[in-house]
Amino acid sequence: MPPPTVEPNERLLVVSFDGSARVKRSGGAYSGIVWSLPEWTVISAASKYQLDITVNEAEYHGLLLCLDLLSDMDRGRLIICGDSNLVIRQMKGLTLLRQQALERLRSWPNHEFLHMKRDWNQSADSLASAALRRESGVVIVNEEERQDLMTLNRLDELLIAKNDGARVKIGAVTRSRKKCRPQVLQEEIVQRMRLERIRRAQDEENRSSIAYLRGDVLELTSAKAKSCSKIADRYETDESGLLLYFPPTKQSDEDRDLVAKLVVPETLQNDLMHHYHSSLEGGRQGIGRTYHKIRAHFHWRGLYQSVQRYVGQCIDCETGKGRPTIHGESPGNLQATHPFQIIGMDHIPSLPRSYKGNTELLIWIDLFTGYVIAKAIASRTAQTLAENYEKCVFRRFGASEAI
């Protein structure tokens, strides 16, 4: 479905919403922003925090919050923008919240929905993420904060204006929009906001390590100081106060900065994995590629396990693979008539590294006797699997008819 189109100088309202939740915190946050076109000014913006809600519920509450902000405004054309596929496209499930949203929308007969990627919903996303970190909502009344939201706004790249039969972007035909933009460069503001967000989250999560690196050891207990001293050679803080990780390397001190990686706090890890897994330059490429993309620039403990869990829970990856190709009818349940005629094979990945460097467990099971063989391995290449099968199964029991 193409995005809605608007006239070059059409007066209308656009709302954007977002929701987020953290299982560990047993709560979620949501936000809503009301924009006025064609100037793209922020009329109203707010966020809220609520206990015991899921991500989908937070997204619905974000939509309801937008409708609350619209309650005292004139009923005209309305465009609703969000990155939730459930709310925008499906509108099913969560019956009570869905019914509340539909009831409220009846007072806006001329409304349209627009589903978009998260990259274009940065204004609402930043507002919801801040509320989730604080575990409390806020109403935006400060003009500087409104200007920051306008800086992050990318909705004008999606909503298209009609001009003499040809479609052009709103930003190309709206002259007054520049007047409401901050005078400083937009990139500098975005960079400052990102650095401040990362620095604040790092200070909350790695308070002891950062204090030790800055020399504030008097604030630490002896146990904390001793623990920090063991890993201090791997971490540094830069001139901006950001915590960096330096992996073990044989490079000289001059080249050490080339391998520095930003330490990502837990509250921002999901955002980072979403960006690299869903990137416009070819996302949805599985665990390995997503992991290596992130690992090249960022670091946190348990990075691979986090990526593995995130990709495994990706709904788009599961639903976007298409229908499987049918290569032929199933032979039915295979039944062995003697030992090692038919064997099953599986593996357990991402185990703690052993002193021999093994991180995975390769398993064979005889379907006739139930006999199990386990072999620790360091990789899952075809050569490794073939060599271990020959050593553990073929040389001992002969060739199997099926695996």
TrEMBL record:
<dbReference type="GO" id="GO:0015074">
    <property type="term" value="P:DNA integration"/>
</dbReference>
<feature type="domain" description="Integrase catalytic">
    <location>
        <begin position="335"/>
        <end position="403"/>
    </location>
</feature>
<keyword id="KW-0548">Nucleotidyltransferase</keyword>
<dbReference type="GO" id="GO:0003676">
    <property type="term" value="F:nucleic acid binding"/>
</dbReference>
<dbReference type="InterPro" id="IPR050951">
    <property type="entry name" value="Retrovirus_Pol_polyprotein"/>
</dbReference>
<dbReference type="Pfam" id="PF13456">
    <property type="entry name" value="RVT_3"/>
</dbReference>
<dbReference type="InterPro" id="IPR002156">
    <property type="entry name" value="RNaseH_domain"/>
</dbReference>
<keyword id="KW-0695">RNA-directed DNA polymerase</keyword>
<protein>
    <submittedName>
        <fullName>Reverse transcriptase</fullName>
    </submittedName>
</protein>
<dbReference type="Pfam" id="PF17921">
    <property type="entry name" value="Integrase_H2C2"/>
</dbReference>
<keyword id="KW-0808">Transferase</keyword>
<dbReference type="InterPro" id="IPR041588">
    <property type="entry name" value="Integrase_H2C2"/>
</dbReference>
<dbReference type="GO" id="GO:0003964">
    <property type="term" value="F:RNA-directed DNA polymerase activity"/>
</dbReference>
<dbReference type="InterPro" id="IPR001584">
    <property type="entry name" value="Integrase_cat-core"/>
</dbReference>
<dbReference type="GO" id="GO:0004523">
    <property type="term" value="F:RNA-DNA hybrid ribonuclease activity"/>
</dbReference>
<dbReference type="InterPro" id="IPR036397">
    <property type="entry name" value="RNaseH_sf"/>
</dbReference>
<dbReference type="InterPro" id="IPR012337">
    <property type="entry name" value="RNaseH-like_sf"/>
</dbReference>
